[in-house]
């Protein structure tokens, strides 16, 4: 980093890098460790719930197979014809009065 002058002595560098002698710390951060623990616990709970829901789904399937499906009645929509005949000319005249 330093330059050697004519007399053989090192000159101090004018621009020093701040904190250049610090070593990076590889210490585990408590937040990261806690988050990993929380995620592990959540993962276990999710796996447990998935297993329970899979069993419930199997039970529902077996129950639905054992019960005979009832025939569904088809609902028909019956439209009644209008009681009075539609007078288009009269309707147009009423609209023009508005």
TrEMBL record:
This is Ribosomal biogenesis factor. Residues 87-98 have a biased composition (Polar residues). It holds the Pfam family DUF4665. GO terms for biological process: ribosome biogenesis. Residues 64-98 are annotated as: Disordered. GO terms for cellular component: nucleolus. It comes from the Eukaryota.
